[in-house]
User: Fold this.
Amino acid sequence: MTPLAIAFLPLTDSAVLVSAREKGFAAERGIDLTLVRTTSWATVRDRLVFGQVQAAHMLAPLAIAVTLGLSQHPAPIAAPFKLNINGNMLVMASGFAAALDPDVIRRTADPIGSAHDFAAAIGLYHRKPVIGVVHRFSSHALMLRYWLGYAGIDADRDVTLRVLPPSLMAEALRTGEIDGFIAGEPYGSIAIADGLAEAVALGPCIWQRGVEKVLAMRRDWMEANADTVDRLLQALTAAAGWCDDPSNREELAELLARDEYVGQPAAALLPALSGRLTLRADQSAIDVPDALLFHREAAGFPWRSQALWIYSQLVRWKMVAATPDHERQAAEVFRSDIYRRALVDMGEPMPGASLKLEGAVTQPMPVGAHRGALTLGPDRFFDGAVFDPADVAGYLRSYRIGSDHG
Assistant:
């Protein structure tokens, strides 16, 4: 057995890692998997960069930021596998949400209207609202900026973003330290169930197939341990399939609920797993079928075009200079070549290309695949924009850097 340690945060989207260990998928491929629970993304980053673990459950933008030298100690990071798609929710305290559309279902279904309402609500508020984000370089923060920017809200000027570990968000809301937050599940659902907040925007309503967590490794370790990497990706793919099977949801929720993993009640974990989200404590749950994807639609495939979209947002928000070298480094973090190598004999359908237009799929669409049949789900951005990875500069010209859509 090959010993291997992976750092993770207590989130519902750690499911693939947890099931790989607990359901024996890792052991079947000769991997003695240890999961190292941490509380902040900064700690996950440091454990990976300094070699305390061989891999990490990581925010996709953080993997790119570390590679570009934007987040503490620079190190080339590789992400050969996506652990999930979607899974985030923006919630705000009732006092702020009262200025928004009172119909919370209509509110979340209309992100354009809600963005404009949010801008108006800021004007009515007695101070800048403080919104918790899990890390500066997180999908959550970039999607929040993207959504706010549509309505002319500059996240660096008009609101205060406060970085907190996701597990501390609900308590920070309770004490008034923040007015709302955007985080991965189950923390939005917990804040709503406790009557602390209500949903304002759902991740899949901002970007229908938003890139979220990746399996991150130091590039030098990945290149020196090809066989271990391949066996790990095979184990995670099998685990992801198990997680996406509706018949396993309750067992998965019980696994995640254990103290050594998420440490929250199974009832708080089931909403995202089942795609049945409660948006306000006094309302019944609604269907959000794309709340969290683990396996279907080749969810684990690391599209390089998605890495480039993240890069475009880092440039847009003045976190990195736009240079050909930065663009190349960002694209190379997502290792679709390693994904293909590892899974070539598993019979998994996988895309024939590594880049695609992001935001262009409006309905389920069959695509070319190396083997098997593959259908991609709708991946539209809420504003209808389409990102062409072959023309990042052109895409960025349609935005005022650091501000709203041009």
Observations:
- The chain has a mean pLDDT of 94.
